[in-house]
Amino acid sequence: MTTKSMIIDISTILFQQKGYKGVGLNEILKECKVTKGSLYHHFPNGKEELLIACLNSMSCAITTDIVDIFKRCQSTREAVKVMIEQLIGDFERQGTIAGYTFTSIVSEMGSMSEPVRIACSDLYIKMQGIYRRKLYEDGFSKEAAESLALMMTATIEGGIMLCLTKKTSEPLQIISYELVNLLKEHQ
Question: How far apart (Å, rounded) are the C-alpha atoms in residues 102 and 165?
């Protein structure tokens, strides 16, 4: 693993746990066991550039996972069920959904930094694209696939936040059931 990758991996965990504002540069340096010069060598524009690299890394991991699930499954209904069951399992094992906690960073930084907002927006656009393509393959019209993909993204992201704040997987369990039924009705 390169120094840059290691900084991104460790910083991603810190940002997820404490938020952007809750993590100081000195804490990042200490946890990564690197000097300020090393960090600035890899991220010349500092902490915000590092956050964007972390968001891009998370985006890649999240979309890769979603694409894999949607390729394995025959229908959008099945894929949604599998994906949400995986999120529920992660939450119940770890007490959090670490790899998918993009929303908290958006709410904290999205209005303050245009580059951060764009990095976050890109993930949601990618997620909606994956959902939209599968829905279209399932026979939904282009308009219905677009609307349902947006609704799925918003619903699942909201469900993740509810699970984290309520400390229970029940919101995602309900969302899984309701989304699967909604997709049956629309087909």
Answer: 14
